Amino acid sequence: MKRISLLSIFLLVSFFLMAQPYQPTWQSIDSRPVPAWFTDAKFGIFIHWGIYSVPSWAPADAPIGVYAKYAEWYWHKSTVSTGEEQKYFKAFHDSIYGEKFKYQDFAGQFKAELFEPKKWADVFAQSGAKYVVLTSKHHEGFCLWPSAQSWNWNSVDIGPHRDLAGDLSKAVKDKGLHMGFYYSLYEWFNPLYRSDVEKYVDDHMIPQMKDLVIRYEPDILWTDGEWDLPSETWKSTQFLAWLYNESPVKDGVVVNDRWGKETRAHHGGIYTTEYDLVHEQKGIGEAASHPWEECRGIGTSFGYNRIEDLDNYMTSKALIDLLIEKVSSGGNLLLDIGPTADGRIPVIMQQRLLDMGDWLKVNGEGIYGTRVWTEKPDNKLPGIYFTTKGNDLYVICTQWPQKAITVRGVKSSSGVELLGSPVRVSARANGSLFIQPPDINPGNMPCQHAWIFKVKDFRD
User: Rounded to the nearest 5°, which phi and psi values hold at 345?
Assistant: First the structure.
């Protein structure tokens, strides 16, 4: 048998690489467009659920930073963090559970015995959300599916003895919603991660991510915990090249920007803010021209925090206003809920989601599938936002206007209507568009919290 020459091997490898649309470089990976379904969806549900849902505690009202109030960080903050953070968490843990009680001992108490995935999916559908992202594995390393790499530290081997990720994925997809998974690249206390990162990436992290993708075919893979290491160490571009070229979801999957300590708002798929922050920086800045998403909890935490009270939760109006603000700026809103350890969505969270759904039933036309008004002139009107779709402009008022609205840059229109209402809206164009709010009895308002005027055929 003839020996294969080095040149032949080189040519074969080169041919294979050329046949792959995406190469394992950021230049190539970043060239892939974000699938249109995501930029049309606008609103999604985030779910933080795991062993941390058992202690379910963080100092919600303490005068400490945003990140210090995350209940899902309970294990780390009660054992590793220093200063004020550890003071709060460790004092709580020792007083309630005792100094000898280990975090791992909570695993048997995470039972999810009241978890009904179809009911969860019903709530999500009624909220008006178009996609769902579940924490398949947070930084604690506990998996909500039967991961072969996490023996006896997953929801099938211990606790619920159930494939929570699989059950919810099926229920969500059956409702016609997009299903995705959050996945933490790093694990606080995994011995392999702490001793041999390269082996951890090769033998633990990448096999887990591929298992999630092949097993459940998610529409979103939302990574986190990237900040310890550069993307080269995580082998992020190699994994993403596989995801985009070979995986069963290669054409429609959406990923975020958390693939290495240098990548947020620079590389990946969608860019992300968290409680309006990119790391410690406020806002998305110039990156807002790229598809992006704000994630945050209804309260001060992502994971369930049982000491949060009404003052810690955003009102339904505030959440609707938040959605409007993000969408009008070109973003999506990924709003988090924290279920209880026994598998219930807290009633107040359900109420907030259903209120948002009621509002979107009336006003969804001005939210879903819309885009930023890029030609917008200097229209700095307090409490008024704009979106566009095709040749229509949507003027969104977070307070009912008490006088005519002047919209600069709109010279003509074939008519103006108030979404959800048959009442005629008077408008005239004379260099600018003047919309006269109709005189409506409060009992006949189309919705409670924010109102949208649709300006038809507003472009010349």
Answer: -85, 120
Domains of the chain with bracketed CATH: 26-366 (3.20.20.80), 384-456 (2.60.40.1180)
For residues 438 and 404, the answer to whether their CB atoms sit within 8 Å is: no
Residue 165 identity (one-letter amino acid):
A
- Per residue of the chain (460 residues), give pLDDT as tens: 445 555 554 444 444 445 689 999 999 999 999 999 999 999 999 999 999 999 999 999 988 888 889 999 999 999 988 888 889 999 999 999 999 999 999 999 999 999 999 999 999 999 999 999 999 999 999 999 999 999 999 999 999 999 999 999 999 999 999 999 999 999 999 999 999 999 999 999 999 999 999 999 999 999 999 999 999 999 999 999 999 999 999 999 999 999 999 999 999 999 999 999 998 888 888 778 999 999 999 999 999 999 999 999 999 999 999 999 999 999 999 999 999 999 999 999 999 999 999 999 999 999 999 999 988 777 677 899 999 999 999 999 999 999 999 998 888 899 999 999 999 999 998 888 999 999 998 888 999 999 999 999 987 6
> What phi and psi values does residue 245 have, to the nearest 5 degrees?
-100, -35
Nearest to 334 by CA among 353, 351, 306: 353
**Distance (Å, whole) CA 409 – CA 398:** 21
Distant-in-sequence, close-in-space partners of 99: CB < 8 Å, separation ≥ 6: none
**pTM across the whole model:** 0.94
Q: Return the DSSP state at 103.
A: G
**Dihedral, CA of residue 191, residue 192, residue 194 and residue 198, to nearest 10:** 180
**Helix, strand, coil percent values for the chain (each to nearest 5):** 35, 20, 45
